[in-house]
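Apologies for my clumsy wording, but are you able to produce some protein sequence, whichever is easiest, and the tokens describing how it folds?
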Amino acid sequence: MKVFNLQCAAHHRFEGWFGSEEDYAGQLERDLLECPLCGDKAVQRLPSAPRLNLGASAPAAPVPDVSQAVAAGSEVQALQAAYLQLARRIVEQTEDVGERFADEARKIHYGEREERGIRGQASPEQTRELIEEGIAVLPLPLPRGLKGPLQ
């Protein structure tokens, strides 16, 4: 198993796990790699130090939470982690109504449907109209990878 440090054109850093160097090259060539934060397909491999197994391994260190990452000086990575955490929570706790977002938001606002958390797509014009009607909406791009299982 190969673990590579990757980066998109927007400088979002993330890890990619591959069966081999050839597997990575093949996925890159077939345009299958994309940034989990913004969906950018312009992904490049960053230099990384190899990991050598020279004997018994020490216990794995616990995964730091967002506040520890900030304290360690990696504010950008901490913000990315917090954003992904928020995006996952939104996906888990809302219903995806897709292109019907504006209609569903109106029906909920005017009491025609039960109140619930929804997400979906709306054009800038539809969003403006909803806000003018007093309907609270928040345009928030969600990474495409969150719509399915994350590896």
